[in-house]
Write a structure and sequence with these properties.
Elements: E1 7-8, E2 11-12, H1 25-58, H2 66-89, H3 91-111, H4 115-125, H5 131-142, H6 145-177, H7 179-200, H8 214-237, H9 242-264, H10 278-306, H11 325-346, H12 352-372, H13 377-405, H14 411-437, E3 441-443, E4 449-451, H15 453-475
Helix pairs in contact: 1-5, 1-6, 1-7, 1-10, 2-3, 2-4, 2-8, 2-14, 3-4, 3-5, 3-7, 5-6, 6-7, 6-11, 8-9, 8-14, 10-12, 10-13, 10-14, 10-15, 11-13, 12-13, 12-15
């Protein structure tokens, strides 16, 4: 792999900010601004979870899952395409365009007159998920090697700190200006950082010939969209309706074509051949299922906590958006702590697979707790804390397991394929959950939609059963053997993204070169 430009006689070969003296003001500002960009990513993923009750009050619908699905579906398809575009046209240029599109998406959401336009805005926000891989790559290209190692760690793990205060900030924005206020804040944050990045960070001089698999991305997105449309509208149209069945068949055909195309393409959007190694299949499968469940739980807990007590559904603490931060912030703290513990112990020789399995074991405990102990603050807080720890272990284990099972030269492509699996599945589970909840929905006379406790319990127990099934497969069929660990494996952990599980993102970059 091509090495980044190094400092020569006090300056980089491309005129970048690096100097032989080490850190400069421009390097420091560039690091801070790129860390703040990834905080915007965390904000965009978190705020829908907290703002969902307010959104459903304005737009009463049982299709709330599409707000998350649109975000992650466009993000899943965009990440590999934008990564290759960055190789062709420059990492900073693609990063700026990505942020600009996401900022426009925030404005569309803030002005949305209907639920459909709100979904469109969320789809425009999705490509910002690519910043998680673009930023570390840009840092390695334009920073001196010693500063690059530190900057990558700070920019990636910086999201953990913001996740602790984000619930309170989002709650205050919603309480003061409604759900539109959080979108206006996100737009201002994203677009201002777009300008600051342009002023502080040079473009990478490195280019690489790459083929962008637009056809593969379109087939994959179209297939998933068709299946999800059938799932989300089947109850309304009838599961055997000609229109619904036509959409389902079209989606399945597109998925089949996507699979066939992937096998033939020289540079497919996802390299299926990578998953012949069981250790990679283990991390992709377990990570995707856990991430998908985490996305739904990040929406369930706010609805359980903020539903009015007078709704008569057997649960509901009636918390305000600001008061809800007393549940979400401790949950985020547990996620951050779990990620830090994993990084510390893996660096001292502990196998990251142990923490993946531990996280999967904790998930059913948290899910069952939320299913039956949701009518008191202490019970809801306990379930939130357990799922926070579980999500932290899984999130931080993924990049370490990828590095352990992949040769150094293939880590970027492998991590991108694993992230596509995780992000793609995260786009599916919200629609499935809200489809299961739909029969239990009640539209309130004052506006908004509430779901009965039986509906939540059904989904939570199904999710717990799915996690248990994946756990059993992981420790039996996909158990690691000696030949599953590549000789290129490293002992030191990559910087873990210690963010709340609802952010559902994983570092896709290779470990920084020092």
């Amino acid at each position: 792999m091509t090495e980044p430009p190094h400092a020569v006689n006090g300056s980089t070969t491309d005129g970048g900010p690096a100097t032989a003296a080490g850190w400069t003001l421009r390097l420091v500002l560039s690091t801070i601004f790129m860390a703040m960009i990834l905080e915007a990513l965390s904000l965009g993923a978190t705020m829908i979870s907290i703002g969902l009750p307010s959104i459903l009050k304005t737009f009463p619908t049982t299709q709330g899952g599409w707000l998350t699905t649109a975000y992650f579906l466009t993000g899943a398809v965009s990440v590999p395409l934008l990564g290759k575009a960055a190789d062709l046209y420059g990492k900073r240029r693609v990063l700026l365009v990505t942020m600009l599109v996401s900022g426009i998406g925030c404005i569309v959401c803030a002005l949305a007159p209907s639920f459909g336009i709100l979904i469109l805005g969320r789809a425009l926000q999705g490509p910002i998920l690519a910043t998680l891989s673009l930023i570390p790559s840009l840092v390695r290209d334009v920073f001196p090697p010693r500063q690059a190692a530190f900057a990558v760690s700070v920019t990636v793990t910086g999201m953990g700190a913001f996740s602790l205060v984000a619930p309170l900030l989002i709650g205050w924005l919603i309480a003061s200006w409604g759900f539109r206020g959080m979108f206006w804040f996100d737009a201002a944050w994203t677009l201002s950082l777009c300008l600051l990045l342009k002023l502080s960070t040079p473009e990478s001089p490195l280019r690489r010939a790459a083929r962008m698999d637009f056809l593969g991305g379109a087939l994959l997105a179209g297939g998933v969209l068709g299946v999800l449309l059938y799932v989300s509208t089947g109850r309304m149209w009838g599961w055997a309706s000609p229109t619904g069945l036509l959409i389902l068949v079209a989606g399945l055909v597109l998925l089949g074509l996507a699979l066939a195309h992937t096998r033939r393409a020289e540079e497919p959007i996802v390299r299926l051949s990578l998953f012949r190694r069981r250790s990679l299949l283990f991390v992709a499968l377990c990570g995707a299922i856990a991430y998908g469940v985490a996305i739904t739980i990040s929406q369930v807990i706010p609805m359980l906590a903020m539903t009015p007590q007078a709704a008569g559904q057997g649960y509901g603490l009636g918390l305000s958006t600001v008061a809800y931060a007393s549940i979400e912030s401790p949950k985020a703290l547990m996620t951050v702590a779990a990620g830090l513990i994993l990084s510390f112990l893996v660096a001292r020789g502990r196998h990251p697979r142990f923490f993946m399995i531990l996280g999967l074991c904790l998930w059913p405990i948290g899910l069952v707790s939320l299913a039956f102990l949701n009518d008191t603050y202490s019970g809801l807080l306990f379930g939130a804390l357990v799922t926070g720890v579980a999500g932290g272990f899984v999130t931080a284990a993924v990049p370490n397991l990828v590095m352990r099972a992949t040769p150094a030269g293939e880590q970027g492509a492998t991590a991108g394929s694993v992230q596509l699996c995780q992000t793609g599945f995260s786009s599916i589970t919200p629609v499935i959950m809200f489809t299961i909840l739909a029969p239990y929905a009640t539209v309130l006379p004052t506006g908004g939609v509430v779901y009965s406790e039986a509906g939540f319990r059904t989904w939570l127990l199904l999710a717990a059963g799915l996690i248990v099934a994946v756990l059993v497969v992981g420790v039996t069929v996909l158990r690691e053997r000696r030949d599953d660990v590549t000789e290129f494996s490293v002992d030191a952990p990559v910087p873990a993204v210690v963010t709340a599980p609802d952010a559902a993102v994983t570092p896709t970059a290779e470990a920084p070169r020092v």
